[in-house]
Every structure is written in C-alpha cells, then in structure tokens.
C-alpha cells in the first residue's frame, strides 16, 4: 500500500489507530498551506475538528 500521509501536492487528512490500545496518530495538510500533526486520541480528535471547521471543504463555505 502506498503512503497515505497528506502532502502539499496531495492535501488531506489522515488518521490511524492500529489497535484499540494504541494511541491515534493524525496528520493534515491543507491546500491553503496549513499543516499539523497529532498523537493521542484527544489530540487527534482536536485535529479532526479543526480540519472540519477551518480547512478542507470549510474553505468553500460562505
């Protein structure tokens, strides 16, 4: 499988949690240039909420 991590050429959000006991990991790169990473369930949840509210398709909202 190819690397699913977002890049400036392929912006997006990637979240992984290999097992129920492992901490979640996430990374995000937006077409606006913003990027972030997070480790731990709470931090990844905040990353996803920030992405949904401020990046990705949120840039198209009026």
Q: What is this entry, summarized?
A:
The chain has 62 residues and is α+β, with helices and mostly antiparallel strands.
Distance from N terminus to C terminus (CA atoms, Å) equals: 37 Å
What's the gyration radius in Å? 12 Å
Task: Count helical runs.
Answer: 1
Approximate strand percentage = 15-25%
Shape: globular
Share of helix among residues?
10-25%
What does this structure look like?
- This protein has 62 residues and is of the alpha+beta class.
- The protein contains one helix and three strands.
- The protein has one helix spanning 41-54; strands spanning 12-16, 25-29, 35-39.
- The protein has a three-stranded antiparallel sheet with strand order 1-2-3, with helices on one face.
- β1 (12-16) and β2 form a beta hairpin.
- It is globular and about 35 Å long.
- The termini are far apart.
- The mean pLDDT is 89.
What is this structure's SSE topology?
Blueprint: E1 12-16, E2 25-29, E3 35-39, H1 41-54
Antiparallel strand pairs: 1-2, 2-3
């Amino acid at each position: 499988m190819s690397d699913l991590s977002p890049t400036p050429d392929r912006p997006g959000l990637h979240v992984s949690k290999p097992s129920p006991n492992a901490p979640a990991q996430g990374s995000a790169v937006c077409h606006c240039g913003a990027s972030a990473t997070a480790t731990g369930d709470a931090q990844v949840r905040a990353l996803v909420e920030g992405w949904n509210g401020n990046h990705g398709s949120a840039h198209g909202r009026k």
